[in-house]
Amino acid sequence: MAQSSPNISCGNCPIRHNAVCAECDKDELAALEAAKSYRSFAAGEPLAVSGEALTHFSSIVSGCASMSRTLEDGRRQTVGLLLPSDFIGRPGRATAAYDVVALSDTVVCRFERRTFDGLVRDTPHIATRLLTMTLDELDAARDWAVVLGRMTAREKVAAFLVSLIRRRAAATGQGEPAGDVAVALPLSREAMSDHLGLTIETTSRQITAMKKDGLIQAINTRAFRIPSFEALALIAGEDDDGGPIA
Amino acid sequence: MAQSSPNISCGNCPIRHNAVCAECDKDELAALEAAKSYRSFAAGEPLAVSGEALTHFSSIVSGCASMSRTLEDGRRQTVGLLLPSDFIGRPGRATAAYDVVALSDTVVCRFERRTFDGLVRDTPHIATRLLTMTLDELDAARDWAVVLGRMTAREKVAAFLVSLIRRRAAATGQGEPAGDVAVALPLSREAMSDHLGLTIETTSRQITAMKKDGLIQAINTRAFRIPSFEALALIAGEDDDGGPIA
DNA sequence: CGTGACATTGATGCCTTTCAAGTAGGGTGG
DNA sequence: CCACCCTACTTGAAAGGCATCAATGTCACG
């Protein structure tokens, strides 16, 4: 069950320089320290349920969660993969728009909704950071629309791996990945398929085929070695500059 | 060719209460009046080109534009349909992330990029409004991901018509559409297909089939009568409360 | 060592794409 | 004013990719 977690100091926080608090100075941080609390969720637990009250604004500190919507007949589409520093909720809204589920054990740093609304209103450094992050998320969502709308199953799987590897590298302060890289999948084939708009079977078959083609090597079912990141990115529909093909 | 257009007063502006300026008071508006300029684009003209410099932050005043990305082999996905009050550009970025093309004759109200960056920094009412709009756009982009990833061709077409009708109603200050409604398509079958992640042929076939089923009636190729908005929304995967199905 | 969740593999069918041809509407020039 | 033409749209036939249904395999855990 979801549990409160002991507070850690913002100074030691792993997402200190990437989350909504990234631009805050010492004084502002003190105000956040006073208002924040931590909570941990086990893999599979819901952090939010679409349509229901969302009492807190949360930032992922560690772990991984998916944001998704499920249609009446069971079809499900993940609309975002939440990694450390990503946020859940929005100012001025009391209801969750999507289901959010922990994919692995996850810790969040959170603020009561009304408290956070006040922080956004009174702390320009939070407001501007939130705007930047939201604009980034918007670009990411739009980029993903290209994947969902126009790419083949194989391209989708490659694009997913590429984006996962890129985000990992960015989060650890590394530059653009290159050459031989490893990637651990924080999610099941089902969660992956929901993200890609594919069935589990199609996803699995594409992975198998990509192994046969030497694009990826299985370390285990949830971890791959990628002999050539560039080759993978090429399949994902990108030129070798790291951007989408002109 | 793109042309400068005579300025109109913010007081008479059709998007005064919906655009980034919506929350501005009289004094702030005066600053905007001084900095703004208008420009008009004929249908088919580019407002922005992906990867190239974007010198201005623009708001659509009238008309309609599409934001899209084209892959090397010609596959194209529209990532956003821009209607009056929607904006193009983002603070602090000098390069366009997507292609933006006018679908019909379009007028924009715009600010030089650096001027706008200053306005966002110094005018809280603009910053907060921009945040709200960006969060709304993010939700819309995520909602559309469900359509692209999990819906059938027919559902996609229905969802598109529903969203178009809803946006029209919202822009003209009406509530939720109901019963017998008409809708004028501001775009070609091709642009529509790019938005839906379908081919022109599939889109056309679905429209034909929906006519046969009595869901829509052709006024002409670019305008339909919808005998029952509710019936259309149901096909688009929504319950009759206007929200996505639980 | 049995059990259950997760993943892979196989066979088949269907929806969408692809390739191709035909139709309709709008504008132009004779 | 009408024939012509260009573009946009529609319709048809066939192919292909992904989904569906079904079974088998694998690993962790009790």
TrEMBL record, chains A, B:
PROSITE patterns: CNMP_BINDING_3, HTH_CRP_2. Gene3D superfamilies: Jelly Rolls, Winged helix-like DNA-binding domain superfamily/Winged helix DNA-binding domain. One of its GO terms (cellular component) is cytosol. Residues 151-230 form the HTH crp-type domain. Keywords: DNA-binding, Transcription, Transcription regulation. It comes from the Bacteria. GO terms for molecular function: DNA binding; DNA-binding transcription factor activity. It holds the Pfam family HTH_Crp_2. InterPro entries: cNMP-bd_dom (IPR000595), cNMP-bd_dom_sf (IPR018490), Env_Response_Regulators (IPR050397), HTH_CRP (IPR012318), RmlC-like_jellyroll (IPR014710), WH-like_DNA-bd_sf (IPR036388), WH_DNA-bd_sf (IPR036390). Residues 20-137 form the Cyclic nucleotide-binding domain. NCBIfam families: TransRegFnrLRhodb. This is Crp/Fnr family transcriptional regulator. It comes from Palleronia sediminis.
